[in-house]
Amino acid sequence: MDRTSRDALAAARERFDTLVVERPDAAGLGGMAETLFATVSLLRRESALRRALGDPATRPAAKIRLLDSLFGEFDGQTLELLRGLVRSRWSQPGDLVEAVEDLAVSALLAVAESEGHLDEVEDELFRFARLLEREPALRAALTDPALPVERKMGVLRELLTDRAQPTTERLVEQAVREPGGRTLEQVLASFSELAAQRRQRVLAEVRSAVPLTAEQLARLTTVLGTIYGRAIQVQSYVDPAVVGGVVVRIGDEVIDGSTVHQLAQARRRLRAGASPHTDQDG
To answer: Which residue from 18, 100, 216, 270 puts its CA 20 to 30 A from 282's CA?
Structure first.
């Protein structure tokens, strides 16, 4: 998203947060999430509708009339959230769809928060993404367009039921059903980041050659918090490709302190310092 769409999304999140304060019941938020997810599916299927509601050149009043004619039976607060979204200016229609999904995920995360399980949901989403990296056959099954969706849902239920929070299970299902042109890992990462943001933290993904100790994790969290001036939530996992040291990813920024990276830098310095001429005997 560019700045225009990011500003519109920030405003939508503020409206949603106000709504959560007014409507903290988990059942209501869960229902809102399902309604918004259904809207995401419809907008992704119907390109003409997506363009009509997300076109920055169309007057907001016209978009509101279209929205009300289609979704007027939605509950009042969900409909008002959608009205706020279509009134806003989006750089492209696809950004509007991402924003609807953002609010749907936020509604489910608010349910987890109200039940005291938000930390677990964030961790489970991260761990499931790592499982996909380790198990290519599982990833292939969940992303195979030829495999019926219900078969995929059956695989997920077998993996997650009674092993993960219901909110985690529902979010993973949504990621598999509606990747929206992204990889499954990218969708899960975006959901994890929303969970961290809900606790006013920045998510840092840390890869290391060996498991980090609790002391090392605490020290790394402190250092990153000092660098970024924000509370940091560290999610760490072992990646043999790192060899030594750590690789940290925060959003689109990567801090590479791995042995592999250091060796690559040393090789570049050696090549840069080598003479372009071959020594010859006189």
So the answer is: 270
As a 3-state breakdown, the chain gives helix, strand, coil percent values, each rounded to 5, of: 70, 10, 25
Contacts of 193 (CB under 8 A, 6+ apart): 203, 251
> Model confidence over 169-217: pLDDT tens digits?
999 999 999 999 999 999 998 998 898 888 777 788 888 888 888 888 8
Residue 239 DSSP symbol: -
Sign of CA dihedral 118, 161, 189, 203: positive
Answer yes or no: CATH 3.40.30 is held by domain 201-270.
yes
- The tokens describing 183, both together, are 């990889």
| CA quadruple 200, 204, 205, 207: dihedral sign | negative
CA–CA dist 1, 99 (Å, integer): 10
